[in-house]
Amino acid sequence: MFNILSRFLLPLVMVLGTTSAIAADVVVDTKDPYAMVKAVANKTFDRFHKDKALIDADSDHLKVIVREELMPYVDYKYASYKVLGQYLKDSTEDQRNRFVDAFEGYLVSTYAQAFTEYTNQKVEFSPGVDFSQEKIVDVNIQIIEAGRPPIKVLFKARRLKDDTWKAFDLVAEGVSLLSSKQSEISNLIRQQGIDSVIKMLDERTKEKVVIKAKSGKSQS
């Protein structure tokens, strides 16, 4: 039911998994959206390397890494509200709060699972432009894989009230993750109600990350 997200997550995995500069003490400049994306990529991939033994022992440790290294730079509350769309105004404050928490957990779980699909690709970051007067910017990226056309990806980031930036959407080949999720979740809310959707998101969050062996069988 929620598999549509996976096609958007592989580009994210590629970006976070192909950075060449790996540093233990990367500083994330949240006041520069272009620098922020690169720095978060470095920090996340470095953490994967350092915690490999923990991941091998318990694949759910990928969720810990995603939550600690990636999610602080994702405006999941804003994204959640966008996904709720027309149902935002019809929900209670309690429902909104529970939906935000459930959607964040769902993203963490799904990002973590997506990282198990990574294979080596090259990434080209487009140079940053002047964003001093902007409230929303696009961080453009191309993913290069031998024998295939480049994949065009962009991260949308928004300026917050404190002048810092957070990412809120991923657009792969012109298709917005938020727009797709809004359509999907709106249909589910209309059919089953927001409380049922929150429950489903919570159930997906609890699913264990599965790392598949090359043979296609799950690793023990």
Automatic annotation (TrEMBL):
Signal peptide segment: 1-23
Pfam families named in the record: MlaC
Origin superkingdom: Bacteria
Matching Gene3D superfamilies: Tgt2/MlaC
Keywords, ordered alphabetically: Signal
Transmembrane segments: none
PANTHER family hit by this protein: INTERMEMBRANE PHOSPHOLIPID TRANSPORT SYSTEM BINDING PROTEIN MLAC
Protein name: Toluene tolerance protein
Organism of provenance: Shewanella morhuae
High-level lineage: Bacteria, Pseudomonadati, Pseudomonadota, Gammaproteobacteria, Alteromonadales
